[in-house]
Design a protein that fits this description.
4 copies of one chain form a homotetramer.
Chain A lengths: L8 E7 L2 E6 L6 E3 L2 E3 L12 E3 L5 E5 L3 H5 L11 H10 L7 E5 L5 H10 L4 E5 L3 H12 L7 E4 L12 E6 L4 H11 E11 L2 H13 L2 E15 L6 E2 L2 E3 L4 E7 L3
Parallel strand pairs in A: 7-8, 7-10, 8-9, 10-11
Antiparallel strand pairs in A: 1-2, 1-6, 3-4, 5-6, 11-15, 12-13, 12-15
Helix pairs in contact in A: 5-6
């Protein structure tokens, strides 16, 4: 059984609304409404075991998945949701060995998820004009230990990408249409691009740019996620939900 | 630039409703409503290039992603949709090196997607009681060349899994509650299980079984995907959509 | 108990997918896959009773509501759905005594529903440029016996309405923005307008026109209706649904 | 042009999030964040005109629809949403002359909307076991001046309704299945019942009771309403929405 070691991350779980990602450390104490949790005692325990707070409450040591890390990412900008990230990953075929270009880096959430999947031979090249975002993303991503598979670039993608022959390109910028011609240059033939935009007007302009720049197989969609309260005799969808994150547009490059 | 070789798969695209996954082969002809496409001539071309049918129509040679392969899977049973598969993959942390147990195999769609992501050191153990499903899944999966990362088992998961210490377990069976106790035995502490069920009653019983068998951090959701027709001046969601595929339930194992 | 009389309408129900609106008549026979139903025998029976087809199948005599009539309307154009019509009626305060202007008439579905609600002192003035639509709508509406509360006008609303001081105005035309200035002239102060449009671009132009023409309290929405298959142990949403009918925009007139 | 008289209600509008229903009164002042609004000056003005607060801000005098009144209803219990009420009204054929039974009264929202539509010859009989709810509903409804068309009954519907031959019955109680047999007794043949329930388990039990008690043509649905932010170049659905209010079940009575 895996023992938790110094430096490992633990998802400290109290209940569905109170869970925190913490780093196992000999010196650490973690303060919660339910009392101080002695993080140093986590070391040597197994994931799945419990730890008690000073006030006697049980906290559980869960194993964080890459998607659990996302929720701890510092967000200077909108963060992509798993419902959208999962679909981008599948529709673009992100996997071992893939060379991927992304702009903007944003909080680094998608960057980190993809970097974890292209290991050990693939690579993510991520561009963001905003130095502050890029630095924050680097910090966020460090926790997942996938830095080796990422190159961060503080450059404006509207002036082009340095890389060629990417297997996939992801645009999450305010004006994807300005980047589309450069994306075309840097993408392998027959391969896929994805663009994420909150407004329908951005989608229209992006689709127009894709059509004019050698892309086909266009598809624009939105995803919705609805949580269900499950309890025998009381099962019902939760009262509120996220209505909209953004639209996803997918297309593939051809040689016209 | 990658040249298409004998044995490679090509997504032969005519328009959004007419695309086929074909295998490059020296002898092959492919017959469509728009005329015969001489597949032999595909060899040596690049992805992204065009080929003409005997009737003079253009077809495009696109690069299939793992999700493109799914649409060609022979379906003896319901196939998982990318919107659901993507979320399962992220929420369970499926990635390089992971050891994953799945039941049932079904058409093998999720099996194939996961196998591609756990390479080269991870492995998928997939169980299906139905020999016919299992054989059909094997055939489907062969196209993706990920067989080395999958062990197929024609066994009833209600009698337990042979493996221990799985990083993740996925249940897609009619009675997940019968498998939950065995899943507990075979899952690593702190790690995640996912269950996919079409009916709300299955979800209720599954959540009850999870609660009674040492799982916490329960979350039940459904996802919806809506396609948008994008055309300047005429943008609107398509008239019809898939309203329901199934509910997803996630939970994590603790040592109670 | 109400007895069915000659000329009354009956909703002849076999199962959820097979029901028909028929008019009680001494001479009529109604042919179905389950045998001929002797409609003449309906006269003198009560709503809720059964009648047998020549092949011995049971058919039920249900009482049609105004919304049941809609499904029988001949549709030369898109018909409004109850989910949208219900909201228009409430948000515009359609009720006894109201004077309402509508364009276009379309199939007459909303016209009929509203006419039934403004009785006995209110009135619907409905405009449609298309003579064929208008005639078909008249025929459709005749069944509901609300003709006395409707004035049909084969005129182009882009040239203005003849009426003033309407309590509510409904626009269901391809270019609502062209009608907005006239709607302003014909609507009472403080009162509401509704516009129904399938595309987001129409909505944008309509909202702009409303803003520029003395309307406030703008609200644009879409409604979705999802059917649930309910059966103990097998309850789940149906697999498919209508994803989109159109967007509704509401606003109120002010004196600027 | 209608002048606002003492006792009339006015929808005092500042912006989409700040509007209030106020009663025109010679003595009244209305205090807002944007300064005191001299309500006495409203009398003699027309709907659609403006009034200035003491701080010089414009407020608009809009005409409240029945649905605008709802938002001011004191809610001791969940209030029905227009998206659901509109559909109930259409599917049950609520209109002039109809005799309707409802339980529970709740906040009186649906009661008021229906009373307004059955005028002048119809009537609503509304039952609620909870005296406090009933009194609050009466107060709420008084504003709409439809009291003459409503009989309030502080009785438990599980013991039956006093009325017979209702044209429609609406159930909005925790255990509709207990009321279904009584609803059958009180409903006209061939006519419709509607039931509103938040949980799927309630829906299952209700549908079972309907099947066992002489109802057919069962239909269970849920409605969703999504708000769109419309602004040229920035159009998108709002970020959050109500995910769930309740399920609606419709059925019709037969003589078995």
């Amino acid at each position: 059984m895996d023992k938790i070691k110094e430096g490992d991350y633990v998802l400290l779980y109290f209940d569905n609304r109170r869970e925190w990602l913490v780093k196992a450390s000999k010196e650490k104490e973690f303060h919660t409404h339910k009392g101080m949790v002695p993080i140093r005692e986590v070391i040597g325990k197994s994931y799945g075991e419990r730890i008690q707070s000073a006030l006697g409450y049980d906290f559980w040591l869960l194993k964080p998945n890459s998607s659990d890390f996302l929720s701890t990412f510092k967000r200077l900008t909108q963060v992509i949701y798993p419902k959208d990230a999962g679909l981008i990953i599948l529709k673009l075929g992100i996997g071992p060995g893939k060379k991927v270009i992304e702009t903007g880096t944003g909080s680094g959430a998608l960057t980190a998820l993809m970097a974890n999947l292209v290991k050990p031979d693939g690579h993510i090249y991520t561009y963001d004009m905003n130095k502050r975002f890029l630095n924050s993303a680097k910090k966020n991503i460090r926790k997942l230990k996938v830095d080796n598979y990422i190159t961060f670039k503080n450059l404006d993608a509207r002036e082009g990408f340095d890389e060629k022959d990417a297997d996939a390109i992801i645009l999450d910028v305010a004006d994807p249409w300005s980047v589309v011609p450069h994306a075309y240059e840097s993408l392998k033939g027959g391969c896929s691009i994805a663009s994420f935009s909150p407004t329908i007007n951005q989608v229209e302009k992006t689709v127009t740019a894709l059509k004019e720049n050698g892309f086909i197989s266009m598809e624009s969609i939105e995803t919705l996620l609805r949580e269900i309260h499950v309890e025998e005799g009381k099962t019902r969808p939760l009262s509120r939900m996220i209505s909209h994150t953004g639209y996803l547009t997918f297309a593939k490059k051809i040689f016209v």
